[in-house]
Amino acid sequence: MTAEVLRLERVRKSFGSVNALRSASLTLREGEVVALLGDNGAGKSTLIKAISGVHPVDGGDIYVRGEKASIRSARDAIDLGIETIHQDTSLAPDLSIARNLFLGREPVKLPFLGVFAPLDFPELRRAASALLRRVGISKKLDADAPVDTLSGGERQSIAISRAMQFAAKVIILDEPTNNLGVEETHGVLRFVKEVRDAGHTVLFITHNIHHVFQVADRIVIMRRGEIVAERAVEDTDLLTVESLIMGVDVSTLVKEAKAR
Ligand SMILES: Nc1ncnc2c1ncn2[C@@H]1O[C@H](COP(=O)(O)OP(=O)(O)OP(=O)(O)O)[C@@H](O)[C@H]1O
């Protein structure tokens, strides 16, 4: 078994009277792809927002590489090696691919000038092209082109590449294949596997169980703010996972529907 990179122990988060996370415990290990599944309102987004510092938890503990961590902001999470790619919001559409690959962490000239330091464009272009080659999406991409000229799948790959290059140990993807075509979806799923094979840990939310079986190593299922089941993908099947998500035996429902 590989090393533990992130562990949540009995984390809680409420919004007024809504207990979005009741007592969620989860361990992520190095180099695995974990799919987080659950019905609408199960608490998936709240869980990833807790890990990424958007909604600091009300209680419970978070450990990063075995050390107790305090994640109170997105900056805290990034500093701990946790990068989150939210749907459609992770890129600046008007900026170039190269700028988006660095976004806020661009190479600068005269770094002692702090926020006033001018960008080092030749270095930015060189580093961006090298990264695009390394992640295998360089074929037709020009690092100077605006990012809004890219397809949805390419944009996802750019956002994931950015997370990878900043050596994020844990990359969290919120519905990475939402609104993508079939081919693009396969491209992103393939890329997720490559990211895993490069040693990163990926946690992703999806409503598409078929994608889970294509890419995940492990499935974690949430219901009503708790993690109710975890399964290795090779040890489970679609009906079992659907049953765990819904909290009822789906095969019985199917039989009943056929009998009507
Ligand atoms: N900012 C918020 N303010 C108030 N309630 C919230 C907030 N965010 C989430 N909730 C509530 O917390 C519960 C869990 O929501 P969450 O978005 O985490 O579920 P989810 O599993 O991601 O659902 P979906 O798949 O529909 O996105 C829901 O009842 C939701 O209405």
From TrEMBL:
List UniProt keywords, sorted A-Z.
Answer: ATP-binding, Nucleotide-binding
Q: Which SMART domains match?
A: AAA
Q: Which SUPFAM superfamilies match?
A: P-loop containing nucleoside triphosphate hydrolases (SSF52540)
Q: Which InterPro entries does UniProt cross-reference here?
A: AAA+_ATPase, ABC_carbohydrate_import_ATPase, ABC_transporter-like_ATP-bd, P-loop_NTPase
Please report the stretch or stretches of sequence annotated as the ABC transporter domain. Answer: 6-249
- Say yes or no: keyword Cytoplasm present: no
Report which superkingdom the organism of origin falls in: Bacteria
Q: What name appears for this protein in its UniProt entry?
A: ABC transporter
